[in-house]
Amino acid sequence: MKLYKYLFAISIIAFTTSCSEDYFDVNGSVTAPTTTSLAPQYRIQGAIENTVATAQYRGAREVLGVVQYGSQNTAAYYSESWNTFLTTGSYFLWQNAYVYALPNTADLIYLGKQYNAPNYEAVGKILRAYILGMTTDQYGDIVLDETYDSESSLNITPKFQTQQEVYSRIIQLLDEAIVQLDEASPIGLNDEGGDVLYGGDHEKWKKFAYSIKARYLNHLNKKSSGELAYNPQAIIEAAEKGISSNDLNALIQYGGGEMENDNQPFSESGYGSSRFDYFSDFFVELLKNSLDLETPYEDPRLTIIVPEAVNGGYHGVVTGRGLNGESGDDFSLGNGGFYTQPNSSTYMMTFSEVKFIEAEAKFRSGDKSGAYADYKIGIRADMEKLGVGSDEINAYIQKIDATIGESNFGLSEIMIQKYIANVLNPETWVDMRRMDYSSDIYPGLKRPENVNLSIFPNDNDWIQAMMYEYNEEDRNYENMPNNDPYIRLTTPLWWNVAD
Amino acid sequence: MKKRLLLILLCFLGMQAFAQERMVTGKVIDKEGIPVAGVSVYIKNTNKGTVTDMDGKFALNAPDNSEAILVISSLGFDTQELTLGTKNTFNVTLVENLEGLDEVVVTALGIKREKKALGYSVTEVKGAAIAETQRENFVNGLAGRVAGVEVNSTSGLPGASSSIVIRGISSLSGSNQPLFVVDGLPISNSTTSTSIFASSVSGTSFENRGVDFTNRAADINPEDIESVTILKGPEAAALYGIEAASGAVVITTKRGKAGKARIDYSNSFRVDRIVEYPDIQQTYDRGANGYTNEGNEELYYFGEPYAEGTQFYDNVKNFFQDAYTQKHNISFSGGSEKSQYRISASHTDAEGFVPTTGLEKLNLSSAITAEFNDFLSADVTFDYTRSDNDQTFRGSGGPLLHLLLWPSTDDASNYLTPGGTRRDYADYSNAVENPFFNVNKNIFNSLTDRYKLNTQLTASPLKWLKFVGQVGVDYFTTKNTIVRHPESNTGKDYGGIFDQALVTTRNLTFQYYTQITPPKLFNDKITTDIKIGSAVYDYNTFSAAAGGQDFQAPDLWSINNTDLATHRAFNNLTERRLVGAFASLNASYDNMLYLTLTGRNDWSSTLPKKNNSFFYPSAGLSFIFTELEALKGIKDVLSYGKLRASVAQVGKDARPYSIRPFYTNSLTTGGGFRYGFTGPSLDLKPEMTTSYEYGIELKLFKNRLGIDATYFNKKSVDQIVQNLRLSYATGFVLMTFNAGEIQNEGIELQLNATPIETDNFSWDILANYTKNWSELVSLPGDVSEFYNSDTWLYGNVRVGSRVGGSLTTFTGYDFERNEQGEVLINPSNGLPILDTSEWIVVGDRNPDFTMGLTNTFRYKDFSLNFLLDFRVGGDVYNATEHYLTTRGLSKRTLDRETPRIVTGVLKDGNENTGTPTDNNIPIDLYRNSSYWSSIYPHQSFIEKDINWVRLRDVTFSYNFPGSVLERTKFLRTASVFVTGTDLFLLTNYSGLDPVANGNSAAVGGAGGAGLDYGNFPLPRGLNIGMRVGF
Question: Which UniProt keywords apply (chain B) (predicted)?
Fold first, then answer.
């Protein structure tokens, strides 16, 4: 039997020596980079680009009709009349935020720690706050802690957390990021040319972080108690530290080149070109009289943002109505204006928005003159962003002073200007809901045609939130809050309920 | 001169030294007096032996020892042992083996084992039986021949892939294909997946349901196969490791035989023809709601009736062609006692019944066996295959549906304008691609060059010790080219699309074992042997794909001729390494009780290191109860009886790169990486299947009747499920993980009988019966259904399994129903209401049972042999019919002008009371053509309990008798044959052929069998040919 043992030993040795442990080190793809192989400076660009071009693009696309910037050629398009896809959960900011955008930010935070690079951690947190904010503002309660974090094994039934918790987290992430951006780091943000937002300038990132903080604190105007009670001073403080000129606007600039992904998504050659058929009647008419005067005064931005119809003039399609047999040549196309040319930019946050936030906070805290001043700075900033000539800007501002003035100025004026300045930004939907879709605030705003009457039977019923995507319903239903369209689409989010 | 003398002297001396030898000669014949070649004749317990030549003669040097024993043995005959005595000439008449006691089968690692010693069921199919079916893809030749084996071919076109599943599905999402082993060497049976193409990245993607690449086992030349052994259970895996977890198809190829050189030539000429076509209505013109509209894109046939005298064209029938195939095989073989050779060549030129499709295949193979000396021998095979396959797109992009959709008032075969550009039935239409244009102008080709080298070295330094080592290389390159013509529907927006992927696979195998045969114990009653060995498998596949658009010069299909700015490339390397160490112990007691124990440990590169080593054992017991003294008296009735039982376990690893997700470039963003859709699986561990098998084998009435019955049960836990869909909130869409448990059980019966056997006439029957059950026992988390998105071919029906149900089910939607199960009707329009809240089980493809029945009749030199294939039960989704119905083409839409009332009760609030309102709302389908899809939703096209009887193949042959051959002086054998394939089908299925498979063999899991969406029926084929031997 000794012999057998000997032979067995030989057999075992024969193969174990031929294959030490590293013989099995062939399980990482060598044709695609893997999680473990990239340092943060190679990940930052993907993290920024996906925040904008996947999450924000999709967030904007799905509410383009809801906020009545755009109208499709077909009647009763889902986002305009709040039917079909919106009622079945076939609506996809969810996937874009969780699958395309958030995991990259998790990697930045994780890699930032691994490489002792707090600046990367900070950028990861800022982008994460931005995406989480956009997502919770469309859904309310969302998955927060149990989505991918780059370290733990996946939790396949992640639990949902309240919007209140998400808001606390957003503020916390931003506060931490602001601190970390002041810490030393061995790796610069733009060492590999990946910081396509701010070219590695920490101060600019900090201003961006403060701006987002101002935006989210400003959402809380109906909250009067608790940790997240409305605090206009905190908003003003954050806004003062926020984006302070158009040069600091957070944006992704497209090149308009041959590749589809080098084109602004809503432009003629972009991958979302078919999602923005026409400008809406509401938007076009608003710009024809953006100061809501008896004698309309055409906004100089009209002809810059809205393309002229083929048959001449500027006309929008009534939201929900579709072309309804009329010729498309009579209406202003969605593609081709300032925001929708192949080389346009997608704006995350602008100087003008910060000023309008500040104006609202000052207005609500009783500082009307401060608000009025910020309001006018915001308008000027937006017009400069659009390239309006200084004579036209001055004329418009003078018109405001002449016709409205500080005495007649109110919330409506701020919100109209913010609406115009934030074209294609999903933030507009938050504002509209905070303002209860009031036509006192947005003159001329009406419910869309062909509105889904079974869920929204009354004239003052407006869409309040989005359905969770059906994948959640199939695979995570125990954690998911009630997803009945009659409830979800009509129930105001936490920040929109006064307490 | 002196030297020579010395040499002779030395030789003489040498002979003197070993002396005591004498020449023994003889002749071996069968009971009819016909010489039997290839019988092995040797002296017991020595290495002296030979085989009989063509005339049944043998000659060997035997020790001059009258006690020595001459052993004469041949497969299928009783082994005879004759004491030499003083005789020098032996004329031996072989006696056919009636008891099957000495039946030998090839098992894992090419090890030949006595069948009686095996604790598990094993079935052998002779190569001749497979070759006789004349199928290019030999896998199809196995259909219906083995219990527990399901063969499913995607179409009857040359190069179509075939999937083979043994004992049901054991993996939810992974491959369920068995391991293919040729002469002990595992070979690749991969099917190219469309995910390797560069265009799958760019958005002009196509999927596995739209194309069909060959399964590469089809490269084997059926004429080279000596025998095929099907190892059904994971017992096989004990020696082949995890690759054989779904069973193994063990192929032994032909070898040369000692004796005169032989030349064998055979040929076959075939014609294939489609004889069944879908029937479509030619009463109503194009349009909607009863109003004719012959618009460019209008291909719904809900218009007004055609005008009298409208001319129709039978576009479907005009499209298919009679397909001619010819095949030539030649082999040279021979050798001496010490070494034998066989070289063969085969050329096949096959046309498909779809114009321009075809397969040209060249096989060259060689096998050399050599005995270097008394203890060292080698066996080397080398072969080369070239396969050039032109295919067509299938399913929604394939010709059949488009032929049906094409207006019958237009002659589709006229597909070009006089100027040579694409002609359409209207102005350029995007609605449908003219199938004639499709097959003539688009290109879909795969060209494979494959080399296999297999070297085996055996050393037996001592009588009880043997070392067997094997090294194999399986190397092949496939160039897949897909061209969408610049005028084609898919290509026209891009100026044509070019896609090419070069896939190179290099698999290396090293196997080695030591066999020890300890001395017998207890009066030679207990024998044992021990094998200890190890194996290393190294798999490497690299694909290089390029894609481009906008052809610059006409009719030149190359990436160089496309617009530089559109070029895309995609590389993928897949590496996988497996190492195994195994040991087995065989023990027998008194030819009555056999025990086999095995153990194996595998290490796989695809699992996390902490979990990458796993051990699994097996045990088998065989009891030949007819060896009991008490039963020896009834040997005339029960000549052989065996009870067997085995239990085995096997692990399975994951696909490469399943643990960590990798990054992809994003086409929707300006730059930088993001994750692909698949999340990390850091804790992956091997899945484990445990199977139990019990069986009985009986041979009755001197082997005139044989029965082999098996029951098996296998349970797989910790299934490695690929592409399990996630809650997106996790951060990913798909994930690979250990999830769920599945169970399979089944009954397999095999029966062979010889009802009639006389000198001139015999009738043999070979029958098999299979019944399987399966259950999806559990899935992880909240997941209640598992489905493979590739099988979601058409509408709201897919191959999905729900927990607690079978693995072979369809899932879909059902109507809303009241508590009594009556269909609820919408009171406002009279249409039934579809309940889209949940995917429920709407059908099961699993048949109640299947049966194969082979009958062989021999009369003198004529023989007739046919295989009938029966299936009872099992559902088929006739998606083609749904498509035709909602397009207004199906004949069932002819009574459209009669208003109808859908049976059901109104959903008016009373539906669950004692008095529901019966539906009384008539629907006017003529004026509401969209209602067709409401009253006939997808799931209503699942045809239940489909049965068939199919004449798979029938061969009639004539062997020229020896008397005729002798007169020719040079012919050794000669025969002519006629073979028919798929000549006859009797079924209750309303579509063309229920054998439909809507996917290719590249699809894992429960596969795409039973999905009929634009599938071609199997053609009827007729072959004639001859075989001659010189």
Answer: Cell outer membrane, Ion transport, Iron, Iron transport, Membrane, Signal, TonB box, Transmembrane, Transmembrane beta strand, Transport
CATH value at residue A89: 1.25.40.390
b/e A124-142 (16+ beta carbons within 10 angstroms → b): bbbbbbbbbbbbbbbbbbb
Q: Which helix (H) or strand (E) holds B11?
A: helix B2-18
Same domain assignment for residues A266 and A136:
no
Select from B541, B610, B667, B668 the residue whose CB has the most chain A CBs within 10 Å, as the one to mutate to test that interface.
Answer: B668
Q: Are A417 and A356 contacting, i.e. CB atoms less than 8 angstroms apart?
A: yes
Same-domain status, A361 and A484: no
Residue predicted with more confidence, A366 or A14: A366
* Three-class DSSP category at B786: strand
Question: Residue A497 corresponds to which amino acid?
Answer: V
Q: Is residue A172 part of a domain?
A: yes
Q: Where along chain B do the CATH 2.40.170.20 domains lie?
A: 122-275+321-393+442-881+945-1029
**Fold entry, domain B122-275+321-393+442-881+945-1029:** Maltoporin; Chain A (2.40.170)
Contact list, A265 vs chain B (CB under 8 Å): 668
Question: In terms of domains, do A371 and A271 share one?
Answer: yes
The residue type of B608 is P
| Buried/exposed B344-361: b ≥16 CB within 10 Å, e otherwise | bbbbbbbbbbbbbbbbbb
Structure tokens at B264: 């064998």
A473 and A413 in a common domain: no
Run of H or E residues at A138: helix A118-139
- Count CB atoms within 10 A of the CB of residue B260: 14
Neighbours of A193 (CB within 10 A): 12
Query: What does the pLDDT look like over A345-365, one tens digit per residue?
Result: 999 999 999 999 999 999 999
| A320 and A363 fall within a common domain | yes
Probe site for chain A from B516, B611, B653, B730 (most A CB atoms < 10 A): B730
Q: Radius of gyration over alpha carbons of chain B, in Å?
A: 32
Residues with Cβ within 8 Å of B977's Cβ and at least 6 positions away in sequence, in order, are: B132, B955, B956, B957, B958, B1023, B1024, B1025, B1026, B1027
With left for phi above 0 and alpha for psi between -120 and 50, is residue B239 left, alpha or beta? Answer: alpha
Q: What is the DSSP letter of B420?
A: S
Q: Are residues A156 and A267 in the same domain?
A: no
Identify whether residues A373 and A297 lie together within a single domain. yes
Residues within 8 A of B (CB atoms), A 70-109 only: 94-95, 98-104, 106
pLDDT tens track for B975-1021: 999 999 999 899 999 988 888 776 666 667 777 788 888 888 889 99
Report the CATH architecture of B18-93: Sandwich (2.60)
**pLDDT (tens digit per residue) in B914-943:** 899 999 999 999 998 889 988 899 999 999
| A57/B682 CB distance under 8 A | no
Cross-strand bridge partners of residue B51: B40
Cα–Cα dist A252/A208, whole Å: 14
